[in-house]
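Q: Here's a chain of 241 amino acids. Please give me its 3D structure as tokens.
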Amino acid sequence: MDEELDQLCKQLGLHRMREIMGREMERATRTKVSYRDVVAALLREQYAWQRERSFEYRVKASRLPERLSLDTFPFEKQPGVDAAVVRQLGTLGFVPTADNVVLIGPTGVGKTGIASGLLLRALENGYRGLFMPAQDLFDELLASLADKSTRKLLNYLKAVDVLVIDEMGYLNLRPEQTNIFFRLMEERYNRKSTILTTNLEYDDWYSFLGRKEMVGALLDRLRHRCTTLRIDGPSLRQPTA
């Protein structure tokens, strides 16, 4: 590849095309392919490279701890999961409609695996997502009060296409933490999708979060357009012999 083409690719940020330009030009000379085929090959490689880079960026920004795929979820080992419902959720129809997903069940039954798989599928399809253990979320909400960054944090969290809140349970919470959480869920309502995993039934949220009238309003919004998946099955963390 000559210097001018090299510099043009560099200045335009066409890094993958810059890498393969010489190879493709040599191939074109050798095989006599058309100009169109050369350009198409270059653009295809550049497009694939940019998509992969964008996906990797979204995965990193999502804080996803593991790339757990729905395709490898062990449905055969977990009879408590309705595989058809999970696969339907995997089509991501709930994301553009801002519906929610709540996974309820004891520890180890696959709630986090399914939530992570749904988030990964969303990231693969160009959506922005964020995975947050519930304790981390409430800690960040509390910290935002100290440095007066609550509005900035809420603006970020309410804009995420898919927010996974993992392991909602009996945490030691201050009233100000629950107040900001109620605001977050209110601002996401009918705008963005939230996936929650918890070992608590909905009725238990009143004792967990307090403020009965606020919890009632939260549950009304959360469950308005929501798929609730209860998993009553064996732990997938049983030691193997």
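Q: Can you summarize the key feature?
A: DSSP finds ten helices and five strands in the chain.
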